């Protein structure tokens, strides 16, 4: 196992190297730091001195052993987003563990059954701590990874700065009732900043922004989208502009055909997020873009549990009975009873109906699910599903991981103000 040396690239900043980590045990230490993000020096929170925290890289089948050493003046917890870990390693306050108090430690340990692109982030006051920088990439390499010249992490992040260029943490209730706390600076942080024409790249694109949806348009590459939310696609997709809601990932394998630019074209925007400079030429690979080997998943059959989850609240929506701005099935925040209480290996189907005027991205812990298309066919495996305003979508999964698992909107201002529920598997 290795933790790569990482270089942070932003549009305006020179590269900033974070210390390399090694050995079979990793320590993640969240602290208050002053660091360079999107070309500015800002007081942030960082794991091991950087925003993002170090890329963590393991091989499929390894056991992750990671110590959280809380250097904050506040509680800390780490959630391993998308990894199917044992419940007590999931990093969720109260539901799976007690918060780690300042100066204390917690040892996470879990086996890595799935290969793919995942990420880690604070799950304590996550709205605040993630927006301030407590996140990083978590890569599990295949036992026999596809041949590429460079394997690059790309993290899409936005920052809200005030008129003086300082981190804006003022409380604006209007933000909480709409699309959330969108930053006014957008950037892509890449683990590498130059390539050669003809290089074959694997881009592992992650959206750790707290509330922002991107539509990522890439130029200078010819290839395919090979995985979503860590899980390989049975049939790789064309490299078209892709929607990435908070917490979602996609893997691209593609050949460099020119200078590589990453742009956000969501909702009429056209903003450069980051780029890769081309420094030379090599003869391109003639091998076809590979399909990644699947992770071991049980295919859901007829559901044992069928339920409906109605997303409610926010500006302009009909009233609901919850106490917060947002609610799920008329409850704001975790209800006293789980949405589903399943026995291990039972299949669930949830019809999610977005009755609000805004998009939401619903994330289930501990499992991946299939999105169902409108004709009821199994779509791709995901751990987070994006629903446009007014949209309804069903998801289905075999619940084979015992424990209490959160299901919440990963727009963290919505989660903080009501959009969270849970289910149990026993
Ligand atoms: Cu990525 Cu409950 O979180
Ligand atoms: Cu939401």
Give an account of the 3D structure.
It is a single chain. It contains three helices and 31 strands. It has 426 residues and is mostly beta strands. The protein is 4% helix and 48% strand. It has helices spanning 126-131, 173-176, 412-416; strands spanning 6-8, 16-18, 26-28, 30-37, 40-47, 56-59, 63-69, 78-81, 105-111, 116-122, 135-141, 150-159, 185-190, 194-197, 200-206, 214-228, 231-238, 242-244, 249-264, 271-281, 305-313, 326-328, 341-342, 346-354, 360-364, 369-372, 378-382, 384-387, 392-399, 403-409, 420-425. It starts with 5 loop residues before the first strand and ends with a strand. Strands 12, 13, 14, 15, 16, 17, 18, 19 and 20 form a nine-stranded mixed β-sheet that branches. It has a six-stranded mixed β-sheet with strand order 22-21-24-29-26-27, with no helix packed on it. It is globular. The chain binds CU-O-CU linkage and copper (II) ion. Residues 79, 81, 121, 123, 247, 363, 365, 406, 408, 410 line the site of CU-O-CU linkage.
């Amino acid at each position: 196992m290795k933790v790569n040396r990482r270089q942070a690239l932003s549009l305006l900043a020179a590269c900033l190297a974070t210390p390399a980590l090694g050995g079979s045990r990793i320590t993640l230490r969240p602290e208050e730091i002053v660091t360079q993000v999107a070309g500015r020096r800002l007081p942030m929170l960082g794991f091991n001195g950087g925003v993002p925290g170090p890329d963590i890289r393991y091989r499929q089948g390894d056991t992750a052993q990671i110590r959280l050493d809380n250097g904050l003046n506040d509680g800390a917890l780490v959630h391993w987003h998308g990894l199917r870990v044992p419940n007590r390693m999931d990093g969720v306050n109260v539901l799976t563990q007690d918060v780690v108090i300042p100066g204390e430690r917690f040892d996470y340990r879990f086996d890595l059954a799935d290969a793919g692109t995942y990420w880690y982030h604070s799950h304590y006051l996550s709205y605040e701590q993630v927006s301030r920088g407590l996140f990083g990439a978590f890569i599990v390499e295949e036992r026999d990874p596809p041949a590429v010249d460079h394997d690059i992490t790309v993290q899409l992040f936005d920052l809200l700065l005030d008129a003086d260029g300082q981190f804006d943490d003022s409380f604006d209730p209007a933000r909480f009732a709409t699309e959330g706390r969108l930053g006014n600076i957008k950037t892509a942080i890449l683990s590498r900043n130059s390539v050669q024409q003809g290089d074959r790249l694997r881009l592992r694109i992650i959206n750790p922004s707290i509330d922002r949806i991107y539509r990522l348009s890439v130029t200078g590459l010819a290839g395919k989208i090979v995985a979503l939310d860590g899980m390989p696609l049975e049939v790789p997709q064309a490299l078209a502009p892709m929607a990435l809601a908070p917490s979602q990932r996609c893997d691209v394998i593609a050949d460099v055909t020119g200078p590589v630019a990453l742009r956000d074209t969501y909702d009429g925007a056209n903003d450069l997020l980051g780029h890769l400079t081309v420094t030379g030429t090599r003869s391109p690979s003639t091998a076809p873009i590979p399909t990644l080997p699947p992770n071991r998943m049980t295919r859901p059959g007829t559901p044992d549990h069928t339920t409906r989850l109605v997303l409610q609240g926010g500006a302009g929506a009909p009233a609901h009975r919850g106490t917060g701005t947002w609610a799920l099935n008329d409850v704001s925040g975790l209800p006293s009873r789980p949405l589903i209480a399943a026995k291990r290996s039972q299949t669930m189907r949830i019809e999610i109906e977005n009755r609000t005027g805004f998009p939401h991205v619903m994330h289930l812990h501990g499992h991946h699910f299939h999105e169902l298309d409108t004709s009821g066919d199994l779509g791709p495996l995901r751990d987070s599903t994006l629903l446009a305003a007014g949209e309804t979508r069903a998801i289905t999964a075999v619940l084979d991981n015992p424990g209490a698992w959160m299901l919440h909107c990963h727009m963290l201002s919505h989660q903080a103000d009501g959009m969270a529920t849970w289910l149990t598997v026993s």
